[in-house]
């Protein structure tokens, strides 16, 4: 008996792969976020903080931090059978920002992680993606003991455009991070559709 396609099951799906950046200030939780959702063992390029780097590394508010990303974090998550995200965590310290141009090549969008205790640390990331017209979402990482502020107060502090999504998240929690990633993909797709409509008119 020859089986029909419906009896053999569906043919394998070739997934769409998308590149998402995870950016933000030093110690904001980028490595933690990538590790929380990656279905492969995340690639990390962390080095110990040293006395030599102490004048350059502002650890106020994150005094317990003992390592820093010097190149990137990399992870992968399958959101659906037909959609895979490759996550690239950028280094947070200014002396490693030269790598951002390489990492942002071909990115669909970005997550800018923010810590309300050190909100000014994510200004550079917000500015970077705005200048390059890369769609981004701001995820406020809810650290224990950090003050909670209304969304509109955080928006004003970061001077965000109205169409930039802002969400509360926990970078340690897989489901919370997945919601953030779904949000940035949806936002980037909406922006792309709006650009296509603008070109067509």
Can I get a quick summary?
The chain is an alpha/beta fold.
Written overview of the protein:
By secondary structure, the protein is of the alpha/beta class. It has helices spanning 5-8, 30-37, 100-104, 123-131, 151-158, 174-200, and strands at residues 16-24, 46-48, 67-69, 73-80, 83-89, 109-114, 136-141, 166-169. Strands 4-5-1-6-7-8 form a 6-stranded mixed β-sheet, with helices on both faces. The longest helix has 27 residues, at 174-200. The relative contact order is 0.18.
Which structural class do the helices and strands define? alpha/beta
Give the termini separation. 55 Å
Radius of gyration: 19 Å
Order of helices and strands: HEHEEEEHEHEHEH
Largest sheet data: 6 strands, mixed
Mean residue pLDDT: 84
Number of strands: 8
Gross geometry = globular
Count of discrete alpha- or pi-helical segments spanning 4 or more residues:
6
Unreliable parts: 1-7
Strand content: 15-25%
Helical fraction: 25-40%
Output the strand order for the largest sheet: 4-5-1-6-7-8
Question: How would you describe this structure in keywords?
Answer:
201 residues, alpha/beta, six-stranded mixed β-sheet, two-stranded antiparallel ribbon, 23% strand, disordered N terminus
Task: Describe the SSE topology.
Blueprint: H1 5-8, E1 16-24, H2 30-37, E2 46-48, E3 67-69, E4 73-80, E5 83-89, H3 100-104, E6 109-114, H4 123-131, E7 136-141, H5 151-158, E8 166-169, H6 174-200
């Amino acid at each position: 008996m020859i089986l029909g396609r419906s009896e053999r099951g569906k043919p394998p799906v070739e997934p769409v792969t998308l590149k998402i950046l995870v950016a933000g200030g030093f110690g904001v939780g980028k490595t933690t976020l990538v590790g929380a959702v990656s279905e492969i063992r995340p690639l990390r390029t962390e080095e110990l903080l040293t006395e030599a780097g102490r004048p350059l590394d502002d650890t106020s508010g994150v005094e317990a931090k003992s390592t820093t990303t010097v190149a990137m974090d990399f992870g992968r998550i399958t959101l659906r059978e037909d959609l895979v995200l490759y996550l690239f965590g950028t280094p947070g310290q200014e002396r490693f920002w030269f790598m951002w141009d390489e990492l942002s090549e071909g990115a669909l969008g970005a997550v800018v992680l923010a810590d309300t205790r050190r909100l000014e640390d994510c200004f550079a990331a917000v500015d970077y993606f705005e200048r390059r017209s890369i769609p981004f979402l701001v995820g406020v990482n809810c650290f224990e003991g950090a003050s909670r502020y209304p969304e509109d107060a955080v928006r004003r502090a970061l001077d965000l455009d109205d169409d930039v999504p802002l969400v509360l998240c926990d970078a340690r929690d897989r489901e919370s991070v997945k919601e953030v990633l779904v949000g940035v993909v949806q936002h980037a797709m909406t922006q792309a559709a709006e650009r296509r409509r603008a070109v067509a008119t």
